[in-house]
Amino acid sequence: MSRTKKAKESRFIFLISGLFVTGVSTYINFDDVINGRFPDVITIMSFALGINQLLMAYLSPHLFPKDERSKMILGKSMFVNYFVIFGTILLLFILTEFSDINWDAQQVLVVLTSILMLTIPTTMVIYSKII
What we know:
There is one protein chain. By secondary structure, the chain is mainly alpha-helical. It has one domain (3-130). Helices cover 85% and strands 0% of the residues. It has 4 helices and no strands. Helix 3 (68-98) runs antiparallel to helix 4 (105-130). It starts with a helix and ends with a helix. The mean pLDDT is 90.
């Protein structure tokens, strides 16, 4: 199978599954968000996963050809994500210490994981536009 056909097939799968997962998790989270409660762990993670899949649908044609451009996109985005991880951890430390938000450890880890699931493909999208 050629790389373009494989990229189109995976793009379609990412798009359909991303739309489905994002729609379902938005529907489930809607009541909690409207009432000011922290949503369930699984629904936050599924929302981040759905957005991740939508971003991967965009990135599929850029990453499937294993050329210098795709390697450069991956390398630069991973370098930036190293600093995003530490910035996010620092921000979560500050938020949990000095704000009125009372999160337990599980909620902080869910937010951190969801942010990481979103920043990795987001930086890849940014670098795919720049490079």
